[in-house]
Model the fold of this input.
Amino acid sequence: MLLPDYIAAHLDKPFEYGRLDCVLFVANWIKHKTGIDYLDGLPHWASERRALRIVKDMGGLEVAMDGRFERIHPNLAQDGHIALRRGGLMLFSGPHIVGPGLEQLEFVDRMEAECAWCF
Done:
């Protein structure tokens, strides 16, 4: 599956903790591309409160990502690389970063990426 197909498969799906949240959206893409499950060993979450507790226990999302992936400047990110924006994870795709929104995937200008990682 290519990135456009992955994005298309999630276009109309709303954000839901433990099913389609920003971490799972990105982690499932990476697992598809690499075969590695970077969430292996982490407890499951089904609520915002539980998700925030897990992230806090890891030192924050940015720290957790730094421990698993190579940080790069957002200007060097390629399609499929990981972005951090406003505390949530997204994927780079062309001129956008893409991630789960309340009602469907959100497409935001890639210049809004605060950090980026490759794998």
